[in-house]
Write a structure and sequence with these properties.
With about 170 residues, the protein is mainly α. About 65% of the residues lie in helices and about 0% in strands. The protein has a two-stranded parallel sheet with strand order 1-2. α4 crosses α5, α4 runs antiparallel to α7 and α5 runs antiparallel to α6. The protein is globular and about 40 Å long. The relative contact order is 0.14.
């Protein structure tokens, strides 16, 4: 019930134009949308468990959560469709999230970068594991390792390749 309230309250904050953009993504892909929503809830719960202080702000937990979110969207969508279609939907969904709920430019860069790290991690792991056999803990373990080498993003020109980035320590 708590999740339903959060979902409804979030929708109430959106303008009509933003709701139309959301519908353009979700209506043509109802199964992907449901799986993406489930990935959102699951990634938030996992990040909350392991990073209770920094998962909802600009710390390392937020970086972990965004990358995990992308991995989980990819994992769930790949179970019902191709990796290419899953990657396309995941990118569109995560980019749209940043558009619907805008942040400061540096925060947006951080989120988009960490989303890409998650998508890249999934695609890299896909080479060695059939997509039907992926499990959440595969990504959690890999992303925990990435948190150990995460970098602080200080300006919009910073580039960190495939490293997680965050804005400040807590």
């Amino acid at each position: 019930m708590r999740i339903a309230r959060i979902f409804i309250n979030t929708l109430k904050t959106l303008s009509f134009a933003k709701i139309v953009k959301l519908l353009r993504l979700t209506v043509p892909h109802p199964l992907f949308s449901i799986l993406g929503f489930y990935a959102t809830v699951k990634s938030f719960a996992i990040a909350q468990k392991y990073f209770p202080e920094t998962n909802s702000n600009n710390g390392i937990g937020n970086a972990f959560r965004h990358a995990l979110w992308s991995c989980l969207i990819m994992m769930y969508c790949c179970k019902i469709s191709s990796p290419k279609k899953s990657l396309d939907f995941c990118k569109r969904m995560t980019d749209l999230h940043e558009e619907l709920f805008p942040n400061e430019p540096l925060e947006t860069k951080m989120d988009l970068h960490n989303n890409k790290v998650g998508m890249d991690l999934f695609m890299e792991m896909l080479k060695g594991i059939h997509r039907q056999f992926f499990e959440t803990n595969f990504f959690v373990d890999q992303l925990f390792e990435k948190t150990k080498t995460a970098k602080v993003l200080k300006n919009l020109n910073d580039e960190f390749g495939n490293e997680l980035v965050y804005l400040k320590e807590y």
